[in-house]
Backbone:
């Protein structure tokens, strides 16, 4: 345990050192929000990779793989499909060169779309941050079982993430992600063949689990597979944290090159994570253990790897969780600052005042995320809830802003509002009683997305088209 403590301490010290080093370079709003638009492709690759693969994959995806097998790759596959499309979107996003997605919504649609976009992002991103706190807390409890409970671990991680995120904003997040991405990629890839060997080879792994674990759909129906594929794909396409990093790129070329590296890294890591969870299931059975499904990667690192490699892998998982929490806490904070405070409350605020308010906002949103974390029982369920809010409410209007000139402001407002309301209310008692059971028992993604798209398309054709001169200025 001393070795694990040393590795975690080293990681924390490294992250803080990088953050404080970048602090001296943060003097303006642009420095804090988009790193002064100075990130090269190499840094972008790892900050995108680190912010995307967090507890949603390491806990939620691994939990799914532990229970059902390779069908869990449908969740990761949604991200891969989204990434393929992002290759063509990234240069457009960098060309727009704003601070947030609501900036885009107001420029393309109107102020109401901006405000509703902020609300949807706050619900989705604080939910994502909340289960990162759970992931970090679980890791601390596994390493220090006699002194730190999972709940206490959530409080400790929340305090660290809030402080760390508030130090230097995007600059801090991006450059620490470079360290985290390299560490996680190497440790996970190296650990996989060693764990397969420990389990007795891939044949032994295959023999120890149901055959469904190794089929494309497993014990899922196609509808169930699509219910974990679509939210991930659509979140990827509209992810504000991702767009902010494109806004922070040095150039359009850097943004596009970064996407290629991101695709390669994501396919490798998502596949390795699922495979590790499956092998971890077998190793746990062989030892007679029954770990919590969401903790299977950390449990396997702790009990089935050589001490040093296990400590490094555990540290990498911990660092990944921290990285994702930073990104998804920082992102909604920029919304409240740029889209509400500077836009409506204090347009003439100095850079110094904006930085102070930004850091206070990080603290407040971190507290809200922690409040949500205290009540979560399933990371996988919370993951899909957060992804669905964003996917249904924002992704359709974001893509329309780039690719469909006929989309109108009224349609965007209706689409965002409808997607948010359907998702947030879907699991309430009155919806369950109002709808037929065959519909009510499904996840929210299909009804929420359908209602959002119908509002976007129908209202667009029922209202006058956007001004052509306005659209021409946006694309110039």
Residues:
């Amino acid at each position: 345990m001393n070795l694990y403590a040393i590795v975690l301490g080293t990681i924390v010290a490294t992250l803080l050192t990088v953050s404080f080093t970048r602090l001296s370079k943060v003097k303006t709003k642009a420095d804090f929000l988009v790193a002064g638009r100075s990130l090269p492709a190499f840094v972008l690759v790892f900050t995108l990779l680190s912010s995307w693969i967090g507890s949603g994959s390491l806990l939620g995806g691994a939990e799914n793989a532990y229970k059902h097998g390779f069908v869990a790759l449908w969740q990761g596959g949604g991200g891969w499909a989204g990434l393929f499309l992002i290759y063509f979107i990234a240069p457009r996003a960098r060309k727009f060169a704003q601070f947030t997605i609501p900036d885009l919504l107001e420029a393309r649609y109107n102020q109401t779309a901006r405000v509703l976009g902020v609300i949807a992002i706050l619900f989705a991103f604080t939910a994502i941050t909340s289960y990162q706190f759970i992931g970090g807390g679980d890791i601390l409890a596994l390493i220090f079982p006699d002194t730190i409970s999972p709940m206490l671990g959530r409080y400790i991680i929340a305090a660290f993430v809030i402080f760390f995120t508030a130090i230097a904003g995007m600059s801090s997040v991006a450059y620490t992600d470079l360290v985290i991405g390299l560490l996680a990629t190497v440790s996970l890839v190296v650990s996989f063949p060693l764990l397969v060997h420990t389990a007795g080879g891939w044949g032994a792994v295959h023999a120890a689990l149901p055959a469904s674990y190794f089929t494309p759909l497993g014990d899922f129906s196609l509808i169930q597979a699509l219910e974990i594929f679509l939210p991930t794909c659509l979140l990827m396409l509209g992810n504000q944290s991702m767009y902010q990093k494109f806004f922070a790129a040095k150039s359009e070329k850097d943004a596009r090159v970064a996407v290629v590296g991101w695709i390669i890294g994501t396919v490798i890591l998502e596949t390795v994570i699922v495979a590790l969870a499956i092998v971890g299931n077998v190793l746990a059975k062989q030892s007679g253990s029954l770990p919590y499904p969401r903790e299977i990667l950390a449990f396997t690192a702790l009990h089935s790897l050589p001490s040093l490699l296990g400590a490094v892998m555990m540290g990498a998982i911990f660092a990944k969780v921290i990285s994702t929490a930073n990104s998804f806490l920082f992102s909604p904070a920029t919304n409240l600052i740029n889209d509400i405070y500077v836009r409506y409350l204090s347009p003439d605020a100095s850079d110094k005042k904006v930085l102070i308010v930004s850091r206070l906002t990080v603290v407040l949103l971190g507290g809200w995320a922690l409040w949500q974390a205290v009540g979560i029982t399933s990371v996988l369920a919370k993951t899909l809830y957060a992804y669905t809010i964003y996917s249904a409410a924002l992704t359709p209007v974001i893509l329309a802003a780039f690719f469909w000139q006929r989309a109108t402001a009224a349609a965007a407002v209706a689409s965002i509002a409808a997607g948010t309301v359907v998702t947030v209310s879907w699991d309430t008692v009155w919806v369950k009683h109002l709808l037929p059971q065959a519909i009510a028992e499904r996840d929210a993604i299909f009804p929420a997305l359908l209602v959002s798209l119908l509002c976007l398309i129908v209202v667009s054709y029922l209202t006058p088209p956007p001004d052509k001169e306005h659209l021409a200025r946006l694309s110039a």
Remarks:
- The domain at 2-375 is CATH 1.20.1730.10 (Sodium/glucose cotransporter).
- The chain is about 80% helix and 0% strand.
